[in-house]
Structure formats: structure tokens, C-alpha cells
Write a structure and sequence with these properties.
CATH class of the domain at 75-349: Alpha Beta
CATH topology of the domain at 75-349: TIM Barrel
Helix content: 10-25%
Distance between the termini: 46 Å
Structural class: alpha/beta
Strand content: 25-35%
Low-confidence stretches: 422-429
Shape: globular
Radius of gyration: 23 Å
Length: about 425
């Protein structure tokens, strides 16, 4: 009888806690839902439960004050290289790639797309070694080269560029393989692009093009107006390596023609694909990117690129509004790779969330040659949630001060909002 009475007394309190976590008072930027305002965000069972001007904190098991910060969907970086662990030297299917988890969450990134490190011949190994063992959501552009991005010996082999087995592998892994990649080809033939498009047609996924050598036999005007399809992605849009500007420094007519056809332009910064003398003039003329991405690898992570937030901050420094920068780092890339379950904070969506701070001061941003652009704003990541669980907490805003805990306190983790320690977890959708 006493137990029943106690249970009845506790029911109102239990019922009142409708949410596991409440992010209170942050400035929400959610392009899909056209929100750019101060809102509370509630999370339950790893999903967004509510977004509203005011949510009663008594309804949440835990409330975190994020006033003065920006709450956005988890960032999506669609150009990375993360096929690490094979031990192959000088290869993006090996030592040139990085394991993702050490680079993503600290920058607010919850999902990435590997840009062609593996082809159909070695995708199973990539999936086993990296995708299935990472906490970051990893998607993949499958290289049209069967052996993947292993260097010139393989990447220049036209005989290993086959649309059939490439498309078949993509169809075996629908929702995981989200596109086809062609990259680094130095010859005059169109076969790499043509085979990639054929595979993309069969698998109903986009093609991402790193156009390799700039050759007169393969002009980008023909690439954009004849070879690619609307929705295909041209990465390294501000490299200046393939005629993105005309001779007078203006936006190339080919770039403009491609945009009119629906070609997607992606940043793909990398270690050798972003120049101020290209980006600044194009941005001033209104040629903004459709998506912001890093081209993360060992040659870019400690150079001018650094990380996703640094690349995003460069576009702030060039005058792009914050909400536009967030859109190109969340909802736009989600749509480009046909993963529209991500990139927004709609109730019912997975609770992949970034809490960002806009720092004010005097900052400097470098391009691929080390040229500097000064800026007065820089983005930093305070908190990253993946499926509603903490993956990164820069200043411990999810935690309680030590002197407010019991004298013999132990672990402060809670499975409702903490990812916890231990080894890697198997990837889930």
C-alpha cells in the first residue's frame, strides 16, 4: 500500500519530464524550417521533440542554458577523406586519410561523405575498417576507379573505370553510398566523367567531379553544359585551377552556365583548392557556393583549411551572412546527397545538433598558398550532439561544477544525453 501511494505521488513529476534534454534560450538557425530566432529545443529518445519560443524546463530531465549561442543542425561535410588504416603510403585509401571522429565532433560536424577514397573493389574494406567503427555518420562517394584513390598508377587507368560494377556496388549499399566520384585524371579523355555519370544514372545518385588536369580537350564549359546532369556536384569551385575565372578575373561564363543548368558548386577547400584571389572576386559577383566542405586529409588539416568551422568562418569574413553559411553547411549538403532526414531540427528528426559561438576579435584566415585574409568573426563549437548524446562539450556546459556534487562523486555520465566512453560504436543509419 505504501509503495502504491508513493508511486501515485511520483507520477505527476514523472509525467512532467516529457524530455530528456532541453537546450534553452539559444538562437536557432534551421534553413529547412526557416527559423532564425531565439528558440528552445527539446530532445527525447535521441530525436528532436519540440522547438518553441518557450518550453517549460520542468518538463525536462536536464536543462542546459545556451543563451548567447547558436543552435544549428549538426554540420554536414560532404568532402572528406577518411579511409585510414590500410597502411598504404601516399594513398587516400591509406595514410593520406584520417580517422573521422578526432576531427568532426569538435567542429560541430555529425555527418561526412568520403569523397572517393574507395572504389567498388575495396569499398567493403573501407566499410569494415572505418565506416562501421566510427561514431561520425559516414556516407561515401564511390570512386569510378575500381581501386579507388590510391595514386597515379590506379587513378590514370581507364580500364579500371567501369560504370557497371560501380553502380552495382552503390545499389548494394543504398543510403550509404550517396554518389559517384571522379577525380585527378590527367588525360584528355572524357571516359572518367562519362562512366561516372552512367553509374550515377543506374544508381540514381549524383556525381562529384574533381576535374583533374586543365586540358583544352576537356573544357569546363562542356563539362557543365553537356557532360554533367543537374544535381551533379563540381567540387573545388574556388581553386582557380580549371578556368573558374575568365582572363579578366570575373566569374567564368562556364560557371554561370552550369549554375543555370543546376550544377552544384561545392567548396572542397583542401590543401590545394582554395584561393582568395578566386574566392573573393567570385563572391563579390554573387557566385556563392551551394555547399561548404573541407576536403579533410593529412595535407589540409594543419594548413590553411584546418577544419569545417575555419572554412565556414572564411565565408563570414567574405561577407556571407551567418544564416547563409549555416544553410550551406547543413540543409544544402543534406539535399545534395539525398539524405534529407538530416540537416534540420524538425520534431521527429534525429537530434544531431551543433551549438556554436561566434567569437569577435582580430583573426586571420589562410588560403592554399598561405595568403591571409583578416576577419573579425570566428566560429567555435561549444557542444555537439549526435542522436541526442554529447560527443563534444568544450566548456562542460552539460556538466555540474565539482563543488556542487557529493564529496565522493563518481562518473557524471547519463545514457540519456551522454555518449559515454569506451571503444568505437557500430554505425547506425
Amino acid at each position: 500500500m505504501r509503495y502504491s501511494t508513493l508511486l501515485l505521488a511520483l507520477l505527476p513529476a514523472l509525467h512532467a519530464q516529457r524530455y530528456d534534454l532541453l537546450l534553452q534560450g539559444g538562437h536557432v538557425i534551421d534553413a529547412k524550417n526557416k527559423i532564425n530566432a531565439v528558440r528552445d529545443v527539446a530532445i527525447k529518445d535521441g530525436k528532436i521533440a519540440a522547438v518553441a519560443a518557450k518550453i517549460d524546463p520542468a518538463q525536462a530531465a536536464k536543462t542546459v542554458n545556451v543563451r548567447g549561442l547558436y543552435v544549428t543542425p549538426g554540420l554536414i561535410d560532404i568532402h572528406v577523406h577518411v579511409y585510414a588504416g590500410t597502411g598504404e603510403r601516399n594513398s587516400y585509401a591509406g595514410d593520406n586519410s584520417v580517422y573521422p571522429d578526432g576531427f568532426t565532433f569538435r567542429s560541430g560536424v555529425t555527418a561526412v561523405a568520403d569523397a572517393g577514397c574507395a572504389g567498388w573493389r575495396n569499398f567493403a574494406d573501407f566499410k569494415d575498417k572505418v565506416i562501421d567503427r566510427s561514431r561520425t555518420r559516414i556516407f561515401a562517394f564511390l570512386n569510378i576507379v575500381g581501386h579507388g584513390m590510391r595514386g597515379g598508377k590506379w587513378e590514370q587507368d581507364l580500364n579500371d573505370m567501369e560504370s557497371g560494377p560501380t553502380a552495382d556496388m552503390a545499389l548494394q549499399h543504398k543510403g550509404l553510398i550517396v554518389g559517384i566520384k571522379t577525380a585527378h585524371y590527367g588525360g584528355p579523355e572524357w571516359k572518367p566523367v562519362e562512366q561516372a555519370v552512367q553509374a550515377g544514372n543506374k544508381a540514381n545518385i549524383p556525381v562529384m567531379v574533381d576535374f583533374g588536369s586543365n586540358l583544352p580537350q576537356r573544357p569546363i564549359m562542356q563539362l557543365f553544359t553537356e557532360k554533367l546532369r543537374p544535381g551533379d556536384i563540381y567540387t573545388h569551385a574556388y581553386s582557380g585551377n580549371r578556368g573558374e575565372q575568365d582572363e579578366s578575373g570575373h566569374t567564368s561564363p562556364a560557371m554561370i552556365a552550369g549554375r543555370k543548368r543546376g550544377i552544384i558548386y561545392d567548396v572542397g577547400h583542401g590543401g590545394g583548392s582554395f584561393l582568395w584571389r578566386v574566392a573573393v572576386p567570385l563572391m563579390k559577383e554573387g557566385f556563392t557556393p551551394d555547399s561548404i566542405s573541407t576536403d579533410l586529409h593529412i595535407g589540409s588539416m594543419n594548413a590553411g583549411m584546418k577544419d569545417m568551422l575555419n572554412v565556414m568562418s572564411k565565408f563570414l569574413a567574405m561577407g556571407m551572412p551567418l544564416d547563409a553559411v549555416i544553410e550551406r553547411s547543413t540543409w544544402n549538403p543534406a539535399r545534395e546527397i539525398k539524405q534529407e532526414q538530416l540537416g534540420h531540427l524538425t520534431p521527429g528528426a534525429v537530434a544531431d545538433v551543433a551549438v556554436l559561438r561566434v567569437e569577435k576579435g582580430n583573426f586571420g584566415f589562410l588560403d592554399m598558398y598561405g595568403a591571409r585574409l583578416a576577419g573579425t568573426q570566428r566560429l567555435a563549437c561549444e557542444l555537439t550532439l549526435r542522436d541526442g548524446r554529447t560527443m563534444w562539450d568544450l566548456n562542460g556546459i552539460m556538466r555540474t561544477d565539482w563543488d556542487k556534487l557529493p564529496k565522493d562523486y563518481q562518473s557524471q555520465s547519463d545514457p540519456r544525453w551522454d555518449a559515454g566512453g569506451g571503444g568505437r560504436r557500430r554505425r547506425k543509419g
